[in-house]
Amino acid sequence: MSLLPLIANSWAFSERPIELYEIQDLYVPFSKTTNENPESLVDALEKSQLFYLVEGSRGDGKSCFLRFLASSLYATDVFTLLLDTFGNSDYSDPNIMAKWVIRAISRALETYDKVGDETKKYVSELMAREVTFQKGSETSFAQKIGGWFSIIPQILRIEASASGEIKRVANTIIQKEYFLYDRVACLNDLIDCITDEAGFSNAAILIDGVDHMIVSDVAEFAKNNFPWLTKIRASVVLTSLSKYRENSEFTGMSECARIVRIPRIASEKSLKIFLNKRISTLDSKVAWDDVCHKEATKLLFDWYSSKPKLITLRKILRSLNYAAYKALNEGADKILPYHMSIGIKDSL
Predict the structure, then answer these.
(1) Architecture, CATH, for domain 37-261
(2) Residue 151 binned pLDDT confidence (cut-offs 50, 70, 90)
(3) Which helix H or strand E contains 100, and what residues bound it?
(4) How far apart are CA 281 and CA 264, in angstroms?
(5) 6, 185, 250, 347 — which has fewest CB within 10 A?
(6) Domain-wise residue ranges, the chain
(7) CATH number for region 4-11+265-347
(8) Residue 38: C-alpha distances to residues 34, 62, 240, 274, 336 (Å)
């Protein structure tokens, strides 16, 4: 029986970012596929209240990395906000940006109140890795949780009385107009309320990211927002594109941040580690070499390494889907170099 359907149109080989509940199944730490260890940022976020920029190319794993951070911090005493849904406003305006963060906290708390106890229990166990997410139930799961899951996982650990107080503070802040200085002070009051009322030792705000927002000018965004983000009494992590560093003003403003770079896969062996994780999630008895000829994998890595600014992990996954479909249509039992060449060409 052909194993190629495991790749073609599979959730495990989708080019979309990994969801929080898929981290344990699909995420491969960069420390295992590169010569760097960006995952060590988890330890820093537990203790610091600094501003971090996570930089990389579009499609090379920034969003997945941010979800790894959120998933890892769930097991700690750090209250974590993963913010990845944006409106139509220009976030170069610092007042809009600050108000958006406050609204996200309030909205998540309100949505959480509407989720049933059974679903809350399941998600709590899932995030604590006491149960395994049932593959194929993504749609029904998303409908149940209504979006709050990816925003604040730790909300599950807040008692109703504390939740009410936090909502009261958030709503009071939102309903009033403030200068930026006052809004930042109010945001800090809200964070203090969260940590004091719910017993968290620190807070982390993970924002994904500048390239997903409406921003009229990245240098203006950095000039207006980076200074106040450093004043929040929480660790703040913001994803950003490496190419923004070509803008000297953006680079100058980013000096206030600690830079964490998303590295690229270092070798063909490392690429196999990445791919083996995904295929073994679908079938624990299957290895990557069972579905792809070694020369085809070599061809894929050579292509990836030949154009570091253009070919990303997202394009790796896209090309694999095309190659698997081609092999399936021809009745092959694995991806051959010929199929991979076509997959690479079609993915561009």
Answers:
(1) 3-Layer(aba) Sandwich (3.40)
(2) very low
(3) helix 94-112
(4) 22
(5) 185
(6) 4-11+265-347, 37-261
(7) 1.10.8
(8) 10, 11, 15, 16, 34
Question: Which of 68-82, 246-260, 282-296, 304-318 is predicted least confidently?
Answer: 68-82
Taking CA atoms, 258 is separated from 91, 136, 188, 193, in Å, by 21, 38, 21, 26
Contact between 41 and 318 under an 8 Å Cβ cutoff? The reply is: no
Tokens of 75: 């097991």
Q: What angle do CA 72, 77, 79 make, to 5 degrees?
A: 80
Kindly report whether the peptide bond that precedes residue 209 is cis, defined as omega within 30 degrees of 0: yes
The whole-number average pLDDT for the span 155-172 is: 58
Which residue is associated with the tokens 């896969």?
A: 265
pLDDT at 152: 44
190-192-194-198 Cα dihedral, nearest 10 degrees: -160
Q: How far apart are CA 307 and CA 309, in angstroms?
A: 6
